[in-house]
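To: structure desk
From: M.T.
Subject: fold request, one chain
Message: Could you run this one when you get a chance? Sequence is below, nothing fancy, just the single chain.
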Amino acid sequence: MKDKDTRRSKGVAFILFLDKDSAQNCTRAINNKQLFGRVIKASIAIDNGRAAEFIRRRNYFDKSKCYEC
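Reply: Done. Structure tokens follow.
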């Protein structure tokens, strides 16, 4: 994903966690930290109705839980 004005990569990533505590701990640990001179913004994804579709496209072993950072 790139910024439409600068055409520079926004550096977006989505991470799947197996449990809610790990997702929350990661979010707290890395939010607002710097990496290579850029500030990391971490947050828990909000359900937008596409989560089930997202999980079906990939072969996850445990589909009962999905926590993303």
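Reply (cont.): The two ends are 17 Å apart (CA to CA). Let me know if you need anything else for the meeting.
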